[in-house]
């Protein structure tokens, strides 16, 4: 009540969710003639943005009440790492969407779409070179362009085929873009190898598995970081009261140490052509070649491909035919969120 000035309207299915339509009516009814009225308006607007844009769920009509304490300490809200929290929410949603029985995603799809369209040119709705120059906010340039009819007519099978046979991947689409000074303080999250936290949500930021995105050569991947199931599958259903500083204490300590896990401080080798090294090619083909071209798999036909039997590592790097399309699919499927390999 201290935030909205009255008792909020809750979801009929869960007392932990607040109806966004009700919050918008409170916001729009503010006269904005006093500082207190302006503060209440801004708090309502921020709460609506959290529930409908940054941390949207499948309902889009309600937002979780767990965000209310953030609005209570209004003067500190600008100090929070909203970018890392949004990534944690996105990674968790992608993990849940990978389940075979999942039909919808509760995720900021605009963030996911823009990431894909900027890098995977074969599935972008319009040719990337026809877009206006990239500037902040980057996503806006996609909203001012008309999508092609051929893209609108694509089927799921066609998208899968295009990803399997991808010939181009734009590793650094924002190279040379001028970033406003007020955003520089948040860039330390981009290339860290550290946990991302959002209340009950713990996800791992695997920047060391996509090093070419940061201009470095990619070595063979190390074992993915394991997050215990009792923490990774934690869900806030019903009324729950947790002290996150205790429940997630060790992970918070790792997050606080993120400045010491930046890729650029680990002295990686730079790359200019983004072509994978022979060592990485050999490792990848021995590990994941059987999972390529899955769009051609016929469930009514032969059995699904199986992983190869373990082979001793050769003493010298062995070059095997490795098309660029395989490289890009490899990184997209197994480099961006491969921490899922340690999850159920």
UniProtKB/TrEMBL annotation:
Q: Which domain of life is it from?
A: Eukaryota
Spell out the Pfam families in the cross-references.
PMD
Signal peptide start and end residues: none
One Gene Ontology biological process: meristem maintenance
Limits of the Aminotransferase-like plant mobile domain: 14-284
**Cited InterPro entries:** AminoTfrase-like_pln_mobile (IPR019557), MAIN-like (IPR044824)
Q: PANTHER family attached here?
A: PROTEIN MAIN-LIKE 2, PROTEIN MAINTENANCE OF MERISTEMS-LIKE
**Which protein are we looking at?**
Aminotransferase-like plant mobile domain-containing protein
């Amino acid at each position: 009540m201290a935030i909205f000035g009255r008792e909020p309207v809750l979801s009929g299915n869960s007392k932990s969710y607040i109806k966004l339509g009700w919050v918008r009516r409170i916001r729009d009814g503010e006269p904005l003639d006093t500082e207190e009225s302006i503060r209440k308006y801004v708090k309502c607007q921020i709460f609506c943005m959290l529930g409908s844009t940054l941390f949207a769920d499948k309902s889009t009509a309600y937002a979780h009440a767990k965000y209310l304490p953030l609005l209570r300490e209004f003067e500190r809200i600008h100090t929070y790492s909203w970018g890392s929290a949004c990534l944690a929410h996105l990674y968790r949603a992608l993990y849940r969407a990978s389940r075979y029985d999942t039909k919808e995603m509760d995720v900021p799809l605009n963030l996911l779409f823009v990431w894909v369209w900027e890098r995977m040119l074969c599935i972008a709705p319009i040719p990337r070179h026809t877009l206006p120059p990239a500037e902040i906010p980057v996503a806006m340039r996609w909203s001012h362009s008309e999508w092609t009819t051929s893209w609108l007519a694509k089927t799921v099978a066609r998208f899968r085929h295009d990803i399997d046979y991808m010939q181009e991947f734009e590793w650094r689409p924002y190279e040379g873009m001028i970033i406003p000074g007020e955003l520089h303080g948040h860039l330390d999250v981009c290339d860290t190898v550290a946990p991302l936290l959002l209340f009950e949500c713990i996800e791992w930021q695997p920047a060391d598995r996509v090093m070419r995105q940061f201009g470095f050569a990619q070595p063979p991947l190390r074992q993915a970081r394991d997050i215990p199931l009792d923490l990774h599958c934690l869900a806030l259903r019903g009324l729950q009261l947790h002290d996150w500083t205790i429940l997630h204490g060790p992970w918070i300590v790792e997050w606080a140490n993120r400045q010491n896990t930046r890729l650029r401080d680990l002295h990686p080798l730079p790359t200019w052509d983004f072509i994978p090294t022979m060592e990485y090619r050999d490792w990848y083909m021995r590990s994941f070649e059987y999972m390529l071209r899955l769009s051609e798999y016929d469930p009514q036909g032969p059995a699904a491909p199986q992983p190869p039997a373990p082979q001793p590592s050769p003493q010298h790097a062995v070059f095997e035919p490795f098309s660029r399309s395989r490289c890009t699919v490899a990184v997209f499927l197994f480099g961006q969120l491969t921490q899922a390999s340690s999850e159920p």
